[in-house]
Amino acid sequence: MSDHPDLTRNQSLVLGALARADGPRSAYELLDDLRDDGLRAPLQVYRALDKLLELRLAHRLESLNAFVACGEPHVHEEGGIAAFAICEKCGRVEEFCDDAVCGRLGAIAHETGFRPRRTTIEIRGLCRTCAEAG
Amino acid sequence: MSDHPDLTRNQSLVLGALARADGPRSAYELLDDLRDDGLRAPLQVYRALDKLLELRLAHRLESLNAFVACGEPHVHEEGGIAAFAICEKCGRVEEFCDDAVCGRLGAIAHETGFRPRRTTIEIRGLCRTCAEAG
DNA sequence: CCACCTATGTAATGATATAACATTGTGCTG
DNA sequence: CAGCACAATGTTATATCATTACATAGGTGG
User: Fold this and answer.
1) Alpha helices, DSSP H, located in B5-80
2) Residue B114, CB, less than 7 Å from strand D?
3) Which residues of chain B have pLDDT under 50?
4) Which residue is closest, via its CA, to the C1' of C8?
5) Is A99 an interface residue toward B (CB < 8 Å)?
6) pLDDT for the residue numbered A1
7) Torsion angle defined by CA atoms of residues A85, B118, A60 and A44, in that order, rounded to the nearest 10 degrees
8) pLDDT tens digits, residue range A20-72?
9) What angle do CA A128, A71, A121 make, to 5 degrees?
10) Is B12 in contact with B2 (CB distance < 8 Å)?
């Protein structure tokens, strides 16, 4: 869990809380996590999150209105699109990146003249463990 | 713009308002659209939307917290996953479905044992027209 | 008729996110 | 160093999105 020296105090606190969590965390949950560290208002969390998202150190899960620490920082440098498998039973989130999917979406964009800025791929369902459990 | 006879009054009203709109509509915007038709509370809209989503007559855009009428009802019967290209400048939304993307995501799920229930694909950026304009 | 299910209406509340404004820190540059 | 610009911070209030809880009404099948 390497530190990121360019982050400000609030940004580090939020990233730390995200990294400690073993699942997605909402902005208000993060705020609760960090009251003892002096955070008092939602905006402090949202501002830190904005920066972390911009730096690709965290991701927003649109279908949950929640956030996770980035699991694979390297893929973003290659233009990859992060995708997420979200278990609706246990809450676990797996981040992955698939070249075929990224390539095909890129090709579609190119064909249609659409210029992508931010792509969301979220698969909600049951992880193997929960599916087998019933 | 075919009618759907199995829908209740509220469901028809909401679907009609979505179909008339030329872009995504939030639940509260739909409520405002339908005040003259007697709708008074958010829940009336949300309940109608739930049903329309279940019937695949409408889609939720997670990254906008908004809804659109379904543009291609047929794809859903083939197990296809709807995807959306959302222009951040003009607000237009294009729905599409790509077999390669669907197939690859399905294969990934199968490999990992994940059982998908609902998949969100949303590409935000600039449509051809807005990209060329600006 | 009655039990059940679905839809409806209404009020209140919960959850998520941003606007507006004052202040502070930091690095640059004259 | 003084002055300036810029980013980050702190705080209050408010906007926006969504659900809980409870009461009512309308069909459908036993």
Assistant:
1) 9-20, 27-33, 42-54, 73-77
2) no
3) 1-2
4) B44
5) no
6) 47
7) -120
8) 998 999 999 999 999 999 999 999 999 999 999 999 999 999 999 999 999 87
9) 65
10) no
